[in-house]
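Researcher: Going back to the complex we discussed earlier. I've cleaned up the inputs and rechecked each line, so this should be the final set. Can you rerun the prediction on the complete assembly and write out the structure?
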Amino acid sequence: MAKNKQTAILLIHCPDKQGILAAVTNFINVNKGNVLYLDQHVDYEQNTFFMRIEWDLADFIIPRDKIEEYFFTLFGQKYDMNFNLYFSDVKPRMALFVSKMSHCLFDILSRYSMGELNVEIPFIVSNHSDLEWIGEKFGIPFHVFPITKENKKEQEEKEMALMRENNIDFIVLARYMQIISEDMIKEYPNKIINIHHSFLPAFIGAKPYHAAYERGVKIIGATSHYVTTELDAGPIIEQDVVRVTHKDTVKSFIHKGQDLEKIVLSRAVEKHIDRKVLAFKNKTVVFS
Amino acid sequence: MAKNKQTAILLIHCPDKQGILAAVTNFINVNKGNVLYLDQHVDYEQNTFFMRIEWDLADFIIPRDKIEEYFFTLFGQKYDMNFNLYFSDVKPRMALFVSKMSHCLFDILSRYSMGELNVEIPFIVSNHSDLEWIGEKFGIPFHVFPITKENKKEQEEKEMALMRENNIDFIVLARYMQIISEDMIKEYPNKIINIHHSFLPAFIGAKPYHAAYERGVKIIGATSHYVTTELDAGPIIEQDVVRVTHKDTVKSFIHKGQDLEKIVLSRAVEKHIDRKVLAFKNKTVVFS
Amino acid sequence: MAKNKQTAILLIHCPDKQGILAAVTNFINVNKGNVLYLDQHVDYEQNTFFMRIEWDLADFIIPRDKIEEYFFTLFGQKYDMNFNLYFSDVKPRMALFVSKMSHCLFDILSRYSMGELNVEIPFIVSNHSDLEWIGEKFGIPFHVFPITKENKKEQEEKEMALMRENNIDFIVLARYMQIISEDMIKEYPNKIINIHHSFLPAFIGAKPYHAAYERGVKIIGATSHYVTTELDAGPIIEQDVVRVTHKDTVKSFIHKGQDLEKIVLSRAVEKHIDRKVLAFKNKTVVFS
Amino acid sequence: MAKNKQTAILLIHCPDKQGILAAVTNFINVNKGNVLYLDQHVDYEQNTFFMRIEWDLADFIIPRDKIEEYFFTLFGQKYDMNFNLYFSDVKPRMALFVSKMSHCLFDILSRYSMGELNVEIPFIVSNHSDLEWIGEKFGIPFHVFPITKENKKEQEEKEMALMRENNIDFIVLARYMQIISEDMIKEYPNKIINIHHSFLPAFIGAKPYHAAYERGVKIIGATSHYVTTELDAGPIIEQDVVRVTHKDTVKSFIHKGQDLEKIVLSRAVEKHIDRKVLAFKNKTVVFS
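Model: Rerun complete. Updated structure for the full complex:
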């Protein structure tokens, strides 16, 4: 939405109190910001208010570089808000991590190459060189960091250095088959998006399709979530499923599952890029 | 299918060998059985052959009460078959177990009262009297066996006695909130159908909707399975799912889930009644 | 939500202008109404604002019988609003129309008899007596109005008289197999809920399962919508689908479809009862 | 399945008679063909038998180039069969037609470039040059045939000449925005696979997302079908759907729909390549 307009986006959460929504929308309105998108949610159990508001900056009377300060002064401290301000013309920068499977990589790059994602992808990282040719096809630098038990710490440090140099905002693990270490997770809290090839929390860890086949399930799934230090236990952004029958094999589970994985991951990445995901206490609010 | 015809149904599984399918279909054909339904499946990993065949008995030259013997002699022993023979005009007898929630009970009884299920339901069993009025509405005897830690063994023995007296073939746990003890499970192997209110194997045990809500899933499910001695781990017959969002609460999880539960359970019960489910090594083959 | 509290609900739509949302929420807040639910939507194409707000009346300082007047005076005229005010403790009154099929009727009555629907069902109307026994089971008066080409107008007038006497607010056609005439539709605009046994707008009119089978579709559906004078063309409230294959027959289409129909209709009816549906220009806004 | 083995595949349909299945499986068995896949279906309404059988050629005693003749002589004429024989090591040759939208093209080429499709794609055809760069990325010749009302016949003849030269077996219209003329359809009966961006038969023709938006549907779909001379009315191979709400716009319909389209088309194309689709009287049998 609003691809050609310069817009500002606020993502907010704070303890719920009467009048927050009215106060914020009023603030945008009286300062001549034309609201293009507004969605809010109250979690009555957690007594927490969530909001996403996007407005056109064309006639907004507060200078762009002052908005954050004004908002904090007028509302942020008053309501004990946790908020983030984004501008639609500032593209987030994304690092793409892959291993040997190409389906998620292709899906993201085909969208990216058509200009469908409001993002910059400065490079791809992999622990294997198998998919280097795909990076080349799409003209994106492909860095290989082979990982062994011995060199893992060292290699991750190189990856983090590369990301810092390139001002990476968030990371997408497009079937990257390595467990991310705590240091990297802490540097990118709720900013590493993983795709797990099961309907979490079922089948955490390795070989979920084999486990699902063993269990004899009638439906398989895929789950995209933010990475936390507990394996496959971070806030879920998106899930989807597909039916299987007794005629399916592990091989056909994998085949059907890959179509799920790529679509589920791309949906999650798009929502993140569009600033529509708010992680809170190991859950997400995903605005429409 | 074939509601008004007298038909025979064979459910077979055995080690896969060349020629079984041809042999069996040929046997029906040459003896003038008109095949009305045929489906087969080979699990190449387990090297196991599965088959369901149904034929019209009108012109079949082998007397009805001799079919089992002939089939065993000619094929059963030769192919090391595990087979069951059923007749469409012999209705299986089903015991219905409930506790306090009515949605699955109503769903089954509304189908039953319309003559949609080829089954006899001689009675309902419950550990509470809350739903007794529903039994009365539908004219089905309702037996209350209150269960405490102390009397559980004794009460189950009474339930089993009641079932034996009534020649019960299989049991449906329509949200019966008691763990079935090993004795009953052993007396009804792959003949107790449960509905679990989660997408198994996620959220085994009590309060799965609460657990799903805590985990922040984006899809919830329901699973119908045969009861084995391991809790919620028996062969899955049917599963289905529905989307949830951050706007949902535990209460709306339960509400959405109940619509799933009743449909999933009824589908599983119908498949079982129609002799279309074959349990094998903790999985099911569910014929179409 | 808020089952035990006395709440007020406002459903609003009007031309979109800056500040409406802030004005309305502020009005509730300053008059000590505790907001329990708020959802809004702007259709930028139609330049139309939609809103549902529900608040606790416990401390609200405007007397209940004055709220409508105050709201109209302060906001209704100013913003050119189309609004409706409801109170959670005033149950809408619903007439249930059926013909010969029982699945939707059973589904609604089983919910109703458990107290799950915040509604009164004073009677059932049918053009056949086939399902009279179900009305009796549930203790609800069942009125039979046999309909022929000749007597249709006359019979519908009797039905309308009965509805007026009973202060009926809305009508649910639970597989009522008669076309409703214009007079009745005009008396109940966007207040007659139908279930059509196809994925509209595919297969309008009679025998949609037969038509779907002929066409060889791989998915079938059901659609609940408000009745307008154009057949099967009114605002859609809810739809759902289920997969079919070449193994399905017209009979199994009907069987699978009936499970869809009853769930889709019940969801639509619940949304309507909970005042969460807003019909506008042949579409609906369905709040969560 | 059986990717590394040399296998033969038979697709058969004929009037249903007793003993066909036994005869065919017996024929494979006695001639030492190891059956790897067998599925059959009887349409009792049409009295038609359908079958797909695949077997390992390693020990098969009939020479590969004689199988067709033997099968016709022994069974084909006797049972009035319509049958096709394929060999797994003979890749079908596919022409890919596109216009300006890339999502389906990317999805097919990413699978193809990973060796997932048992097919040859000698070239891409388009009426526009917009996607030529994608052909180049993947190293596949890209032929542009601009089409106007005046030159349509002539250009299609050139396309057909190109296809004949390249021994094209079937055509995939990956969002090709031109109506195929009768001549081409007749040359490729049930061999042109289209993706239509609606849940057919709803919204036939141009701009189905706009029409779906206008109608206010709550679910949108995509349909892959064989092209016949009647627009969007050919045998359906695969369909899928996704939910939409009042918050969606035409733009988001298109966005959500594109993810459906590419997966639905790729599934249909894979089924066709794997010889698992049998078109019969404007419907398909799609084997698992």
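Model: Worth noting: The longest strand of chain A covers residues 34-43.
Researcher: Good, that matches what I expected from the previous run.
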